[in-house]
User: Which sequence fits this backbone?
């Protein structure tokens, strides 16, 4: 039962794509093209969207390929789901950390310790936000909260030419972004272990 539960989520595919995204987006770190903000101050480099991609890939493993198969599954499988998603998130963070160390050592991409901490913190936040949204929302609207936040961050990323807005976790790290990362990550794991999305979706 547990093996079929895990295999129905395409976890291997999500992790392989995560590894590929880490390499591809980190390689363009020094010369990344950007998305210009609406306030016209500075752009957001494409490489900074790596945490968003990793969060979306983690959230893609919340639901099985065939949700109806789990509508009658025992509720203890919710704990398995929470643990499996925790494992996926931890593996993504490990892949990201290894990718940063490897590319900085071999390709000298110019990452600083602050950049590395920023990537890890932002990834944890987007993992939590995306998985929490999928766990609490219907499939049709689950991507609205993460997408709305991403659009806001891309439209108004910088306070001035030198400083991003303090809540822009894609470009800075501070006490606020660290706290938000912890809240969303822990909240998502609680929701994944308690909210029976399969039965909820089956009733719709």
Assistant:
């Amino acid at each position: 039962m547990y093996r079929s539960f895990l295999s129905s989520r395409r976890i291997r595919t999500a992790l392989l794509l995560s590894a590929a995204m880490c390499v591809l987006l980190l390689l363009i770190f020094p010369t990344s093209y950007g998305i210009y903000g609406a306030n016209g101050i500075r752009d957001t480099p494409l490489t900074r969207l790596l945490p968003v991609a990793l969060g979306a890939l983690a959230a893609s493993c919340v639901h099985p390929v065939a949700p109806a198969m789990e509508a009658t599954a025992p509720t203890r499988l919710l704990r398995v789901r929470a643990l499996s998603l925790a494992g996926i998130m931890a593996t993504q963070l490990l892949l990201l950390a290894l990718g940063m160390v490897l590319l900085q050592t071999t390709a000298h991409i110019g990452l600083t310790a602050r950049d590395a901490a920023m990537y890890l913190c932002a990834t944890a936040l987007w993992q939590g936000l995306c998985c929490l949204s999928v766990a609490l929302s219907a499939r049709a609207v689950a991507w609205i909260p993460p997408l709305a936040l991403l659009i806001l961050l891309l439209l108004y990323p910088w306070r001035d030419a030198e400083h991003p807005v303090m809540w822009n976790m894609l470009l800075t790290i501070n006490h606020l972004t660290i706290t938000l990362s912890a809240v969303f990550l822990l909240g998502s794991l609680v929701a994944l272990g308690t909210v029976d999305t399969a039965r909820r979706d089956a009733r719709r």
